[in-house]
Amino acid sequence: MTDHPGAGSPWSRFPEELTGLDGELLTGERIPRWAAEDFGHTVHAPPLAVLSPRSVRDVREVVAAAARRGIPVAARGGGHSVHGQAQAPGGIVIDMTPLGRVVRMSDTEVTVEGGALWRDVVAATLPHGRTPPVLTDYLGTSVGGTLSVGGIGGMSHRHGVQTDCVLSLDVVTGAGEEVRCSPDRNRDLFDAVRAGLSQCALVVRATLRLERAPARVRRYVLPYDGLAEYLADQHRLAHEGRFGYLEGQPTPQPDGTWHHLMEAVAHQPCDRAAWPPDDRDLLGDLAFRRGAEEIEELDYADFLDRMTPGEALLRETGEWFHPHPWLNLFVPGAAAHSVVSTTLAGLTRHELGNSGLVLLYPVPTARIRTPLLRLPDDDTMYLFALLRTAPGDDPAARDAMTAANREIYDRARAAGAVAYPVNTLRMSPEDWRAHFGPVWDRLARARRRYDPAGVLTPGQGLAY
Ligand SMILES: Cc1cc2nc3c(=O)[nH]c(=O)nc-3n(C[C@H](O)[C@H](O)[C@H](O)COP(=O)(O)OP(=O)(O)OC[C@H]3O[C@@H](n4cnc5c(N)ncnc54)[C@H](O)[C@@H]3O)c2cc1C
């Protein structure tokens, strides 16, 4: 790779003009390998430079200079994209993690830099008995990275997604300007950034709502033999809000059938002494297989961090570094049984991968107030996620999983499902237009206004 592809190219003299940076612009041999990598290990698009910023000014200057020359730019937070969404082929990757500080905190809100990992956010808030209302299952994702897509979790049935819990954002637009936006200020930008796939601006600071954190949780894992009973109980619990957290996993059985494990978690009420809760009150009317339930009590912090031991194990076995051709769908409640049962009937353990898993849990759609997060037309949607792991040495298996994702997406879409866009899914510009549907014009307008040179986040594959 050369630093300077040619005197006439947009790249010509670019690095020399950015000599006043607080951080560093890495080019040539100094470009780290991770800049053309992500958790998906499917797309490898080398950039021409990586910015390791020391200040928001660095981000502003590099984006502005790139915009003047039409050079693509992508922010990279935790690097957990699964299809090159944080890569910038022939452009600049901005490593946001050096801008990862917790800036300030009160009882009701915390301001963090865009590259902060959620793990760092909760490490700062929990000692004060405060928590963001919604957290992803895995805390190694970055704040900017999940706000780019939505950020869904087991608390979403009560609080919506993470982009619903943002009070204000400081962003660097595609023109390199730093702008503050919130529901009362530059509202169009606020709405274009939240779940806007980083098409208009990069998040450099986010002020997030906090609420009182539970001290303890009581976690119930409830096995269901039948999908219909599982969905019916989940639907009821999601609307009723009996538990603080609600998720679940279909699990393949040796005979090729699927059972379903509901995961329901009671949060220790902070304002009531009665603890533990009466299990009969919480579980009495549910249709799970009696006697096979598992119940445990945990500190809230340990519960949030529950993926860490599994991650350590997968790093040890190497599977953490294998390809992850993932598919996440939002399926309308009315079609959940048919979409899920058809999909699972055609899915073997082999096609999910050794450490792969399936998630299935409900969210009342009215809880979500992020305009660009596309939802099915139903009062309830289910996150239906096929979190596949391909063998490390079998690109054909990885490609077959990716192709299968497309087939499942097309079938589910015909039944009213939409993509939760954190997928290994080849989306054409037309697919994206159809995905955004009635809000496409809003996104395209914001893109023209805030990223007129069209440089931000090419890895998403949108075209305007
Ligand atoms: C193990 C695991 C568990 C997960 N669990 C959940 C879950 O429970 N719920 C859920 O909703 N998702 C989950 N995800 C998906 C994950 O939240 C998304 O892929 C998210 O976008 C990853 O953010 P990141 O910073 O780690 O990734 P990156 O790949 O670094 O970034 C993701 C996207 O955000 C953009 N971006 C990064 N930083 C910024 C910034 N500061 N400003 C603007 N754009 C930025 C990137 O350009 C890219 O397009 C999980 C992923 C993994 C690998």
Describe the structure.
By secondary structure, this protein is of the alpha+beta class. It folds into three domains: 82 residues, Uridine Diphospho-n-acetylenolpyruvylglucosamine Reductase, domain 2 (2-Layer Sandwich); 121 residues, 2-Layer Sandwich (Uridine Diphospho-n-acetylenolpyruvylglucosamine Reductase, domain 3), CATH 3.30.465.10; 204 residues, Vanillyl-alcohol Oxidase, Chain A, domain 3, CATH 3.40.462.10. Helix content is 28%, strand content 23%. It contains 15 helices and 19 strands. The strands form five sheets. It has a five-stranded antiparallel beta sheet with strand order 5-6-10-8-9. The protein has a four-stranded mixed beta sheet with strand order 1-2-4-3, covered by helices on one side. Helix 7 runs antiparallel to helix 11. The site of flavin-adenine dinucleotide (FAD) has 34 residues, from strand 3, helix 4 and strand 10. InterPro entries: Cytok_DH_C_sf, Cytokinin_DH_FAD/cytokin-bd, FAD-bd_PCMH, FAD-bd_PCMH-like_sf, FAD-bd_PCMH_sub1, FAD-bd_PCMH_sub2, FAD-linked_Oxase-like_C, FAD-linked_Oxidoreductases_BP. It holds the Pfam family FAD_binding_4. It comes from Streptomyces pactum. Belongs to the oxygen-dependent FAD-linked oxidoreductase family.
